[in-house]
Amino acid sequence: MGVIKGRMKEQQVPVNVSEVIKARAYPVGDERDFYSLIGRMVTLQDREIGVFRTSDGGLFALDNVRINPEGIRLTEGIVSGHTVYDPSDDWKVDLETGDVTREASNITKVPAYRVHIMKSKLYIVLA
């Protein structure tokens, strides 16, 4: 018997993108459970996450934090455009980036997460 020389060719298995997303994404409910202009809190891996639907149908997810220790959580804020804000405490958070706009705030950015919809189910991707 002879020795086989050379290397075996690696097989490439086709990757289904939706399977990769599911591996990192967590289901949080049905798409119709999230109403326009109202934040809703969900819990994933011991994290409170606020999910927001804008008037144009966009869906966003941010950590559900308090910008001011005595203030309200993000899900209790008012959604306007792609911003959630508290008029009594004068903070605004960009729903797309998590950037905080407020004078003398110790928080300048809130972690933001990607949101995916597959077959009317809402998934949040935690990195």
What general form does the structure show? globular
Mean pLDDT across residues: 83
Fraction in helix: under 10%
The ordered string of helix (H) and strand (E) elements is HEEEEEEEEEE
Largest sheet: 6 strands, antiparallel
Uncertain ranges: 1-11
Strand fraction equals: 35-45%
| C-alpha end-to-end distance | 52 Å
Tally of alpha and pi helices: 1
Strand order of the largest sheet: 1-10-9-4-3-2
Supply the helix-strand structural class.
mainly beta
Report the strand count: 10
The Cα radius of gyration reads 21 Å
Write structural notes for this entry.
The structure is a single chain. With 127 residues, the protein is mainly beta. 6% of the residues lie in helices and 39% in strands. It is built from one helix and ten strands; from the N terminus they run H-E-E-E-E-E-E-E-E-E-E. It has one helix at residues 17-24; strands spanning 25-30, 39-44, 47-53, 59-63, 78-80, 83-86, 91-94, 100-101, 112-118, 121-125. A six-stranded antiparallel β-sheet has the order 1-10-9-4-3-2. A hairpin with a 4-residue loop joins strand 6 (83-86) and strand 7. It is globular and about 40 Å long. It comes from Paenibacillus urinalis. Keywords: Nitrate assimilation, Oxidoreductase. Pfam families: Rieske_2 (PF13806). Residues 30-124 form the Rieske-like [2Fe-2S] domain. This is Nitrite reductase (NAD(P)H) small subunit.
